[in-house]
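== Folding the chain ==

***
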Amino acid sequence: MEKLVYLNGEFVTKAEAKISVFDHGFLYGDGIFEGIRVYHGRIFKCKEHLDRLYESAKTIMLNIGISKAEMEEVLCSTLRKNDLDNGYIRLVVSRGVGDLGLDPNNCAGASIICIADQIKIYPQEMYEHGLEVKTVAVRRTNPDSLSPRVKSLNYLNNIMAKIESIQAGVVEAIMLTQEGYVVEGTADNIFIFRRGALLTPPLSAGCLEGVTRNAVIELAKKKGLEVREELFNRHDVYNADECFLTGTAAELIPVVKADGRVIGEGQPGEIFKNLLEDFRALTLVDGVLIKEG
């Protein structure tokens, strides 16, 4: 079955899914996006993803042009067209077609693209045995320059860090703030379990407010774990009992080595395993059912 892409109100084939070279999303990275998981016929955390999308749009003064309810139907329709009950959605909203200048007021209107497919960013053995990360020199964009709570199309900061991690022989990096605190990976939030508490950097450090991150925080609190959003550095990571990453594409994945230091026992820990089990259970019941059109 050939994949169909939603493009500004129409469904077209992958080969036909094209945008103008004058689209400001292409020219300037002027736009926003969401990556969303689909499990067992449910769009996982659909409300949370759409809330984040529309908040991002408001911050950058981008008029999406349709309501959240209409956007939810775009997601459902795209999944139905592709007969997909389990997979990944990439929802993109750009400023739209304009001229070669920066002024967004010269754009005719937002472009909306919705892609439904599969995604796998880490091999299965890394989920079973853990992965290694390395700290990169590329620092996370200062939140005073661009709010990390805007999930924008401009991912060059993350891409440069990803390139550096690949050159170092690992698949993921630890990115630091300008002050040297741990903030996140190139595409994932980071958690450590240390001295009886689960820690993750606060949003003020410059990390994305991850939907999976928030879900894990809620699950951990329900288990009675102490969860703290606070600053920590590489020393804390090296000496943690456990470390793991979270993200829509990555889900939950354990980290067993950082900058050559073995973390904990050098294997996925019990806190991680228990949270992963709870997360899997959550995906069975949380989310918007793909409605019939």
User: Anything to note?
Assistant: The first strand starts at residue 4 and ends at 7. DSSP finds eight helices and 16 strands in the chain. The chain has two domains: 4-119, 124-283.
